[in-house]
What we know:
The protein is α/β, with parallel strands linked by helices. Helix content is 34%, strand content 21%. It folds into three domains: 7-65, no CATH class; 84-255, 3-Layer(aba) Sandwich (Rossmann fold), CATH 3.40.50; 258-330, Beta-grasp domain (Ubiquitin-like (UB roll)), CATH 3.10.20. Strands 1, 2, 3, 4, 5, 6 and 7 form a seven-stranded mixed β-sheet that branches. A five-stranded mixed β-sheet has the order 9-8-12-10-11. Strand 6, helix 7 (217-228) and strand 7 (234-236) form a beta-alpha-beta unit. Residues 95-96, 107, 115-116 line the site of magnesium ion.
Amino acid sequence: MAVNLPPQYHDAEAEYKKARTPEEKLVALKKMWVILPKHKASEKVQVILKTKISEVSDEVEQIKSGPKKQSPNSYKIPKQGAGQIVFVGPPNAGKSRLLTRLTKATPEVAPYPFTTREPVPGMMDWEDVKLQLIDLPPITADFCEPYIGDFTRGADAAVLMLDLGDDDGPFTVETVIERLKALRRILVGKRPEVDDDPTVFYLPTLLVCNKIDAEGAADRLEIVREMFADKFPIHVISAEKSEGLDELKTLLFKLLGLIRVYGKMPGKPADMTAPFTIPIGGTVMDFAERVHADFAEGLKSAKVWGSAAFDGQTVKRDHVLVEHDVVELHL
Ligand SMILES: Nc1nc2c(ncn2[C@@H]2O[C@H](COP(=O)(O)OP(=O)(O)O)[C@@H](O)[C@H]2O)c(=O)[nH]1
Ligand SMILES: [Mg+2]
């Protein structure tokens, strides 16, 4: 039987999907529970949700009563910038080197595996926006830091790093994909249209093939393209020699599926220095919400420069914005 779920339920569910800690999860799950209509048609959902709530409550309790104040298996890195992108891959692919090239972060770079055990964040500048990049420890057939599950759920996108200097490069990447899949984290070239399982998390992913400077890299790249071209967008770089990095930055922003929209105060020129970012297909309402949590409620009208028929045209709340639009909100 189909269950008609109110929009607030989906909001709470989105909150749950983004939650990192058991406490955050529990808050969101409880919200979902309150909103869920309790009738015959929703019985199945009720059972699933109840089970989940109980599991997560246990987790919360365990952490509280455990001997350690802080769980070593979880790290909290507050989100910053327009989006958060995690680096995943096998050991030695050059994830940490890439982070040092794109940000001011200084993770250890070394020719032996498992140098990175903790998540290392860095902020990347791209044009007038900042993206948060997080270098995660390597994933192999035998090993995957437990907290990787948390990070691959909370992130907005992923860079999957492949080592073109290694004959096993494509296969170690396959292993990474499989390990994450076992955690119900699916790396995808594009988000699926339907996403109806709240426990499965899709991560838009760019396959970054590193070490194109290495001997034999071009031949390996051909194999990589055969194996992965239909699964992910592919970008080739040399982190060491800083090749392909400008294009990479642009691709990383594109991977987030965002557009930049600029605010304007009535009677003043637009502020073209600090854009707001909203999802592609976002409306004037989405923009208002980004500017201020309360603005969407009180929005009376808006004027748009760019996507409107003429500059400064008054548009409806559901007017779809495009990259580089300028919007003046009237409250
Ligand atoms: N030839 C070459 N070596 C690289 C490149 N990027 C990283 N490396 C080397 O590969 C090794 C592993 O790099 P690292 O960033 O620590 O890998 P991680 O384990 O994925 O974080 C180091 O010795 C790096 O100097 C590259 O583009 N070309
Ligand atoms: Mg590393």
